[in-house]
Amino acid sequence: MKVTVVGAGAVGASCAEYIAIKNFASEVVLLDIKEGYAEGKAMDLMQTASLNGFDTKITGSTSDYSKTAGSDIAVITSGIPRKPGMTREELIGINAGIVKSVASSLVEHSPNVILIVVSNPMDTMTYLTHKVTGLPKNRIIGMGGALDSARFKYRLAEALGAPISDVDGMVIGGHSDKGMVPLTRLATRNSVPVSEYISAERLQQVLEDTKVGGATLTKLLGTSAWYAPGAAVSGLVQAIACDQKKIFPCSVLLDGEYGLSDLCIGVPVVLGRTGIEKIVEINLSDAEKSHLTESAEGVKKTNALLDA
Ligand SMILES: NC(=O)C1=CN([C@@H]2O[C@H](COP(=O)(O)OP(=O)(O)OC[C@H]3O[C@@H](n4cnc5c(N)ncnc54)[C@H](O)[C@@H]3O)[C@@H](O)[C@H]2O)C=CC1
Ligand SMILES: O=C([O-])CC(=O)C(=O)O
Predict the structure, then answer these.
(1) Atom of ligand 1 nearest to the CA of 37
(2) What crossing angle do the helices spanning 200-211 and 213-221 adopt, rounded to 10°?
(3) Which residues form the Lactate/malate dehydrogenase N-terminal domain (predicted)?
(4) What single DSSP character describes residue 84?
(5) Helix (H, G, I), strand (E, B) or coil at 275
(6) pLDDT-derived band at 201, boundaries 50, 70, 90
(7) Burial of 162 by CB count in 10 Å (0-12 exposed, 13-18 middle, 19+ buried)?
């Protein structure tokens, strides 16, 4: 199993590290445009192999896509991150051009690749990747919901005073401060709805904190987060590589599912060896449906900027 990660910055390197530590891939290629940067990160990570006990071979490449040839999965993290006070949508001007050229180069060298898009604004970059590559829709996956759901579980556990392993929950919708739809109604602690343990007001606070999870970290760090994003991507890569058939909310091209079409937005999907094996349509309440529809309108507005 060969995995390429484009962008050896904060998220790309974290992603490569978690993939290696989980020890399921034979090879990870890190690629960046900064001269020597990916090679340096790869060497540094390889020097953790004996310490962390993994056999994955990590190599680096400065803009040489021939080194990525034959990749089974490629992750696109290249692009600029936001600074405090910015929205993800403001990154479109620079990141669209980067994602466009990176996606084309990846497919040129690995025609059977499954692409995981991370660069922001992620839902729009995932849609752009469809437009640029024309790959079948099962082979383009946007990563946002897996991260947002991890943050939701963190906030739920905090509110419940419970260990995170006790809670379950999912965030669908757009990967944006306003567009996320944390499904509080369906969140549970050991199968029991969390609403049985905490007040509606506290649950509303959990929802608000989850939606601004990325912005909160950006304010604290001066740039956006990387550990949880890297771990979330590694979870998707592992589910595909190991044919796990796990369900994650991912940004995928919809064609009528949830009453939506011609956009990529976060909904639950089954991930396995062929990428997106199934889009799962769960029963949403009227309020959840209208939040998802509103979120889709926001994503479509950002998509429209691609043509501007
Ligand atoms: N979807 C999600 O949940 C998340 C998305 N992100 C997004 O991921 C992206 C990367 O974030 P960071 O790693 O923190 O940024 P970073 O600045 O640390 O790393 C980005 C890397 O991309 C490289 N790069 C730029 N243009 C390139 C090109 N044409 N080809 C190859 N490499 C290129 C840069 O040299 C840099 O090393 C940002 O757009 C950020 O908003 C970040 C966290 C979560
Ligand atoms: O907040 C950002 O800009 C980066 C990101 O998407 C996240 O951490 O959720």
Answers:
(1) 37
(2) 60
(3) 1-142
(4) T
(5) strand
(6) very high
(7) middle
